[in-house]
Design a protein that fits this description.
Length: about 140
């Protein structure tokens, strides 16, 4: 927390080693607060004011925490007391496939790529043996 305008020098005073764990921060008139956020799960995070009038003015900050793993099972399900808008009905679960798909033969492009890599490995091996034999 500080008074007046924030500056780069104020970053040297941040407590990054054992910060206080809180769910709210007070900002005094004419002041500022630096907030260290540790989002521990992927998804959307909402940082907002407790002042209801500010919500309708769009004074909210949404932060998306990205996860490179596209597995949707890692995201936590919504809580059972989630408030929904209007006549929302959750989508019906997708039916399980009745017949498992049969594996297909590799494409000719995959075979050509494999042959090309094998050829490059063999040429590299021959060049290495030739180089060792010369020296």
């Amino acid at each position: 927390m500080g008074e007046g305008e924030w500056s780069l020098e104020s970053r040297l005073t941040y407590n990054l080693y054992d910060p206080v764990g809180r769910s709210s921060v007070q900002v005094y008139p004419g002041g500022w607060s630096a907030v260290y956020v540790y989002p521990d799960n992927p998804g959307m995070w909402n940082l907002r004011s407790q002042n209801l009038q500010s919500w309708y003015l769009g004074e909210e900050l949404y932060v998306r925490v990205y996860d490179a793993d596209p597995n949707p099972a890692k995201e936590k399900p919504p809580p059972p007391n989630l408030l929904l808008c209007g006549k929302y009905e959750p989508p019906a679960p997708t039916p399980a496939p009745s017949v498992s798909p049969t594996p297909s033969a590799p494409s000719s492009n995959a075979c050509n790529l494999h042959k090309t890599r094998y050829l490059i490995a063999m040429i590299t091996t021959v060049i290495c043996f030739f180089y060792i034999g010369v020296h």
